Amino acid sequence: MELLERRRALIEERLVEVVDGIEPETLNEEVRHVALSGGKRVRPMITVLTCETVGGEAEDAVDFGVGIELVHNASLVIDDIIDRSELRRGTTSAWTEFGHGPAIVTSDGLLGEAFSLFSTDPDATRVVSESMVELGIGEATELSAQPESEAEYMTLARRKTGALFRAAAELGAIAADSDPFTVEAVGEYAERVGVAFQIRDDVLDAVADAEELGKPTGHDAALERPSVVQVTDLTPAEANERARTEADRAIDALERVEVADPDARAYLFDLAEFVVERKR
């Protein structure tokens, strides 16, 4: 765990450094409210751990990890506006705290800082751009065309959540100068973890306590959003089993990779388990 905390500390320190450099002061305050209000830092940890798993150093991947966390935060700001969510990570969402206009500007600011971190490597920029195209398609689909089957839901989950997870892992492999086969394998691992994460998120929205979760629950049903519970006939327990299947397939994908750091890979295995079992 000490090793894991050191990696997390690297990410947090660099994230704070990036936020500290943002101007003007108003934008700095708004970005700080979003980016430094907590969070599991799952995506940047995937970036760093993937890099080490395939032979790189943690420090090589930190900037890319911080970048993907900023992209994720930018998407959450917009999600909260769309969903009218007043709470995020146990505190006020950006639009609730600052208003709709400033919140949108905050999202733009987060994306700008992120792409400045990716700009050192054309492959990194390409990977993240592709993931954002998928994310945009997923968000648009969710608002305009409700999925009507489990298969359609899984496609939506892959785009909405899996795409950024995939980018996070591929960024780690890119930072380690990996070959295309390795980049693809770790990408599949992370995409499946992301889908499992989204399924579990939907289940928690349906059954968890809002105070424990740190954000409002019941939103999917209230807004008729396409959650796994709403779209399919699966019970929460059955949905969790679907999440576990995705996690198992993620591990299968990761086992195809030539491993340089078994300890780092073990943490990625643990992450696949965590996303299925998490309580918030």
UniProtKB/TrEMBL annotation:
Residue ranges that the Swiss-Prot or TrEMBL entry lists as coiled coil: none
Cofactor(s) the protein needs: Mg(2+)
Keywords attached to this entry: Isoprene biosynthesis, Magnesium, Metal-binding, Transferase
CDD domains noted in UniProt: Trans_IPPS_HT (cd00685)
One Pfam family from the record: polyprenyl_synt
Annotated GO biological process: isoprenoid biosynthetic process
MF (Gene Ontology): metal ion binding; prenyltransferase activity
Keyword Zinc-finger: no
Family designation: Belongs to the FPP/GGPP synthase family.
Name used for this protein in its record: Polyprenyl synthetase family protein
